[in-house]
Specification:
Blueprint lengths: L2 H20 L12 H23 L3 H24 L3 H23 L9
Helix pairs in contact: 1-2, 1-4, 2-3, 3-4
């Protein structure tokens, strides 16, 4: 699996989720969930992941690894907020995307052949 493509895919889904939150299309939770804060956080994580994907294609595996760790931390905070706010759709989104980020982490952090040529 091409890890850079995976990071790009997750970044693209975050752009969609961010747009849905910031435009008010998705607003199914209660505090502490806040769709505006979620949309901003998703946009920031999307930019970081996209930058990590580009860095990975240029051979900067450590930058990509840092981007994935940042995204996992952000998803952890987001999942915490959505669970406490009972935002069902957002919980499902986090539950689907978090394993993909963990897969990317495993590939980047633990693969002995992790280099730009295998990504």
């Amino acid at each position: 699996m091409k890890i850079a493509a995976l990071l790009g895919f997750v970044a693209a889904t975050l752009v969609v989720a961010s747009a849905l939150h910031l435009t008010g299309v998705v607003d199914d939770g209660s505090p502490p969930f806040d769709p505006d804060r979620a949309g901003i956080a998703e946009a920031v994580i999307a930019v970081v992941l996209a930058a990590g994907a580009v860095a990975l294609t240029r051979g900067a595996r450590r930058i990509a690894l840092a981007a994935v760790v940042f995204a996992i931390a952000g998803f952890g905070v987001g999942l915490s907020m959505t669970i406490r706010g009972h935002a069902t759709g957002d919980i499902a989104y986090h539950a689907l995307m978090l394993p993909l980020l963990l897969l990317a982490l495993a590939q980047l952090g633990f693969s002995p052949r992790a280099s730009s040529s295998t990504n």
